[in-house]
Predict the structure.
Amino acid sequence: MLARPGAGCYNRPMIQSLSVGPIGANTYIVDQTDGPLLVFDPGAEANRILPLILTAIKRGHQDSVLLVCTHGHLDHTGGLPELTASLRDHGIKHQICVHADDVAYFGAESVRTNQRLFDSIQASAFFDRLQAVIPAPDLLLQHDSLLPGTDVRVLHTPGHSPGSCCFLIEHGRTLISGDTLFKGGRGRTDSFDASEDSLLRSIRERLCNLPESTRVLPGHGGETTIGKERRHYL
């Protein structure tokens, strides 16, 4: 079930959601019965994300965190420097996970790549406000693999960025879709490394074949279902 902070307790796995940063990127915290705690797209405001992580770990007795990025854009990764430092201070093991095709958005190349991205979409002011060196990833994801210690399946869905991915959670009943698929829309493809053709192919071939009832939790905005969105693409 999806809960916003303070909304109460649900049967696990519980998914908490908060909107972070100046353009409202969605961060999702998935508290599993077993395995690591999952934090998807910690894009900003690590000071708001960290208490939810600490509470979830205390409640579930998890001893590690996977920081999973649906793609490398700064609005989805900008909270990583502060968050990883805080996790280290608390002695919490963690790994940053992203698809190999978006690795240029991390590590030594991260500032240059993100600047090129936001310049290409005429959003330099956003980059100037939030620029940061994003830590290098610990784990490079591949299509149709599982996140370690989980049954969460990786779907490589390039188009919005070369390494964009979606993630099937809750035994395939819910899709975390990043900026691939939104409620009533899809990710933009006007940046230097995006492709409209690739994005449409990703949606048609890897998302539209999911059950219509599959819940979609996107990188921005409210949730939807595959059934509601597939009619726009088939």
User: Anything to note?
Assistant: The chain has one domain: 2-228. The mean pLDDT is 93. Residues 40 and 73 are 13 Å apart (CA to CA).
